[in-house]
Task: inverse folding
């Protein structure tokens, strides 16, 4: 038994401290330990909706790194790789020889002996993870869930169940997913991303191939059709999915739009599941649903229970997330931060709102990603009617010379494009009066969504007065 196993399994864990507790993966772990009646404390640099929710659940959070000095008898410290090693709170833990472990190490131990359903891929994994966990919960199968987003059905990213089944979002960042032991694995895509970690697209692919090798000997791999180097992915059972039939075991047919929902039939091998209703925009989300349905079918869940669960799925916060739907305005918030995700988002908007005037506001995320994918970002954004770029959100990175949102703007060909500061956005939106406004990005752009909703509501009121 290693040191971390000893801490977690001897029942002596009383006080646990999280560095970066507001992160989506960290907050799920914090909720897990809070449910186990440990005393949970944490640091995050700013107050967010996530930290507010954790406080309401009884978790103690502070925003000054030095406050850790006030705590005694800390049994375990969990940190995110996004925290710099020379941060004061990290230095304190190292100097005082506190048991310090990455989030991925702790998740590895929690799930080690479970039946693990691990969803990986450079796109779509949060939606698939959340929908899979929802189907298992709604159908009565039961699962523990560690999600990479907030479920709109349950307003949380974690829940527990006596069933020894774990649905886990398998994050490729920092190669964290290579510590998981899947019984069922999903790979949605292996596109170049996190090149600050991997260096090359080939190394990204190598990591996903290694992930497939962690499957149980009798395990099942659910994989998107057409993956590069698919023949190198290893599994006893493979289920291949895509929206179209060619080369797949699972696909969708008879797709139509009904009241801002997709309705479609599913062909799963030789089975027919009619009239599946999904309340999420974007055809990529039909494919995400197919992956979750494949898992449910593999587990033996009945078709009618699957249909009912998918129809009741409300989605994930910040994934084609409807913030406002009024007579004059629609406001959508989305986490899209990769060129392929933006392409899927814009395609979905055009399908749901083909006749409406749309403004897309995008905040680039990370200097390295912007540098490496600037051409691809520009190509995807050129699909939109009108684009507003916000200043780049650096997250954990230091500036890179010559890299900014301007780099993407210069490469774009769409006529209606501009770069605005955050404080200029509300007045610009008032002047443009878009029928559909979409906010996209993985930085702090979500903090602007609430105020913009109020701006649009005020515009609605003023328009009503002029009737």
Result:
């Amino acid at each position: 038994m290693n040191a971390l196993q000893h801490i977690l399994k001897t029942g002596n864990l009383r006080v646990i401290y999280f560095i970066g507790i507001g992160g989506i993966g960290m907050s799920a772990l914090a909720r897990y330990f809070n449910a186990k009646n440990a005393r949970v404390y944490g640091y995050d640099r700013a107050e967010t909706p996530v930290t507010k929710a954790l406080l309401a659940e009884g978790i103690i959070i502070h925003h000054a790194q030095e406050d850790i000095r006030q705590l005694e008898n800390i049994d375990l410290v969990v940190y995110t790789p996004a925290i710099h090693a020379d941060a004061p709170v990290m230095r304190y833990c190292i100097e005082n020889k506190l048991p310090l472990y990455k989030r991925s190490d702790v998740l590895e131990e929690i799930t080690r002996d479970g039946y693990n359903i691990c969803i990986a891929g450079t796109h779509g994994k949060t939606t698939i993870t959340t929908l899979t966990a929802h189907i298992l919960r709604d159908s009565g199968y039961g699962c523990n869930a560690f999600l990479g987003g907030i479920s709109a059905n349950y307003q949380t990213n974690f829940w527990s169940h006596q069933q020894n089944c774990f649905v886990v979002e398998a994050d490729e960042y920092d190669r964290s997913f290579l510590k998981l032991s899947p019984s069922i694995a999903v790979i949605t895509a292996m596109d170049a991303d996190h090149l600050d970690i991997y260096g090359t697209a080939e190394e990204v692919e190598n990591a996903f191939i290694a992930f497939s090798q962690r499957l149980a000997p009798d395990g099942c791999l659910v994989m998107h059709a057409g993956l590069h180097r698919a023949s190198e992915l290893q599994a006893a059972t493979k289920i291949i999915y895509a929206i179209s039939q060619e080369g797949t075991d699972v696909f969708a047919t008879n797709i139509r739009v009904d009241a801002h929902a997709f309705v479609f039939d599913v062909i799963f091998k030789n089975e027919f599941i009619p009239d599946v209703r999904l309340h999420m925009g974007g055809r990529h989300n039909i494919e995400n649903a197919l992956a979750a349905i494949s898992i449910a079918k593999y587990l033996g869940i009945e078709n009618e229970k699957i249909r009912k669960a998918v129809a009741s799925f409300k989605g994930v916060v910040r994934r084609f997330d409807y913030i406002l739907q009024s007579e004059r305005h629609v406001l959508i918030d989305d986490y899209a931060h990769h060129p392929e995700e933006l392409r899927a988002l814009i395609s979905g908007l055009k399908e749901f709102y083909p006749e409406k005037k749309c403004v897309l506001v995008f905040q680039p995320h990370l200097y390295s990603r912007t540098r490496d994918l600037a051409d691809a970002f520009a190509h995807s954004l050129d699909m939109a009617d009108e684009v507003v770029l916000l200043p780049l959100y650096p997250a954990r990175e230091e500036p890179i010379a010559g890299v900014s949102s301007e780099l993407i703007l210069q490469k774009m060909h769409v006529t209606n494009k501009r770069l605005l500061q955050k404080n200029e956005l509300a007045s610009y939106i008032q002047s443009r009066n878009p029928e559909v406004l979409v906010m996209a990005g993985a930085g702090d752009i979500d903090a602007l969504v609430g105020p913009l909703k109020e701006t649009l509501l005020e515009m609605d009121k003023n328009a009503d007065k002029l009737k």
